[in-house]
Amino acid sequence: MKRRVVVTGVGLVTPLGTGVAKSWKNICAGKSGIGLITRFDTSDFQVKIAAEVRDFNVEDFLDRKTVKHFDLFVQYGLAAAMMAVEDSGVEINEANCGRVGVITGCGIGGLPAIEKYHQVCLEKGHKKLTPFFIPMVIPNMPSGHISIQIGSKGPNLALTTACAAGTHAVGEAYRHIQYGLCDVVVTGGAEAVICPLGVAGFSAMKALSSRNDAPEEASRPFDKDRDGFVMSEGAGMLILEELEHAKARGARIYAEVCGYGLSSDAYHIAAPPEGGEGGARAMQQAIEDSGLNPEDFDYINAHGTSTPLNDRCETQAIKTVFKDHASRLAISSTKSMTGHMLGAAGGIEAVFTVLSIHHQIAPPTANLIEPGPGCDLDYVPRQARTMKIEAALSNSFGFGGTNAVIAVRRFR
After folding, report:
1. What CA–CA distance (Å, rounded) separates 394 from 354?
2. Per residue in 74-93, pLDDT tens?
3. In whole angstroms, what separates CA 396 from the centre of its chain?
4. What values do phi and psi take at 263, rounded to 5?
């Protein structure tokens, strides 16, 4: 018999604020974390905007000496995990550490450090490279450092599946508990690649919004004037726990993770197929895995990137799966306020989906003034909505045609 899996802790580092309370308050208020880039000179860049985390102080979580050799994505992931562990109240000790896992997602890894030390190598020679260079940049460093910090000795995994990585991580953590491999898993995503190489790379693909004169309005999922996504950064972590384990220690339960779906488009390295067939299959799998019916779902935290192709194809995929019920769903893209955190997006949006159920509030899709062609569902435009949310999906789709969806329900 498959074991039930619940969420007992959450942690966030986002452009809307470090900490769950600050981020959730701002997301419900429809505030934007997007602004002009401050990390580097953008005078010769076409794209000058991003969603930077501006209030993060690593010394609030760790000694600066400990983390001076961590790239920023590792700092974010570790801080979010520490917040989630503290929020859950779970204790990790010698008796249970082998049953506690860490599974994280990351799209790219330490790109700023790669950029920095490549320049060092060119200008000063390879002998000037720090011995910490490789451990700074590899994508499994958040999971590794989280495990070291909390003393967990169960599975330690890192998934690198582009913008679906965070959701894949949560889904695989759910499976590890469901099938008895772990009792507790720290899971989510972390990313921090707002650097010249990152911005230039996505800009060369024509993937980014260039609405530099109005940054807060640049991310506009499902709107007719959307022109690309806005790069972002941060981390979102959750504590997933086997139900009886959580109940035995009197844990507060936010919600229950009840389904997971994943698929491949087998179509294109960056574009979804018309109709969103791969995303539709992942949603259908998550619903079937949950044991619920499509009409039992009230809300979807959409991938909703603000790109012309994604938003139209995701809308069609939702219609394919939910049929007549699609028009009764509340659907929102929190990327309209956070920007797109790439591999961290799924972890952060999983937290937002869990909080939506916990608080019975659907966050808004900011900047949605007039829906674009083919975008004709209820996207909770501009204002959060207090409503009944018994079950919800969180969608993530990534380059390479990889798709991941988790289903979450109110705990009963």
Report:
1. 9
2. 999 999 999 999 999 999 99
3. 8
4. -160, 175
In this structure, are residues 404 and 350 in contact, taking their beta carbons and an 8 Å threshold? Answer: no
Domain boundary residue among 228, 248, 268? Answer: 248
- Examine residue 146 and state whether it is found in any structural domain, yes or no: yes
Tell me which residues are annotated as active site.
Answer: 163, 303, 340
**Phi and psi of 59, rounded to 5°?**
-70, -10
Question: pLDDT: is 96 or 63 the higher one?
Answer: 96
- pLDDT of 2 reads 87
Residue 337 pLDDT greater than 80, yes or no:
yes
* Same domain (yes/no): 162, 139: yes
| Claim to verify: residue 290 and residue 347 sit in the same structural domain | yes
271-312 tens-digit pLDDT: 999 999 999 999 999 999 999 999 999 999 999 999 999 999
Q: What is the mean pLDDT of residues 210-217?
A: 97
The CA distances from residue 63 to 33, 56, 131, in Å, are 27, 14, 20
pTM above 0.90, yes or no: yes
Domain boundary (248, 276, 299) is at 248
Distance CA 169, CA 366 (A): 27
Domain that holds residue 397: 260-409
The count of structural domains within the chain is: 2
Q: What three-state secondary structure class fits 120?
A: helix
pLDDT of 32: 98
Q: Which of 73, 126, 105, 23 is nearest to 359 (CA)?
A: 23
- DSSP assignment of 71-89: -HHHHHHHHHHHHHHHHHT
Q: Token pair for residue 147?
A: 């495990």
The single-letter code of the amino acid at 194 is I
Tell me: do 14 and 131 sit in the same domain. yes
Is-contact 144 109, C-beta < 8 A? no
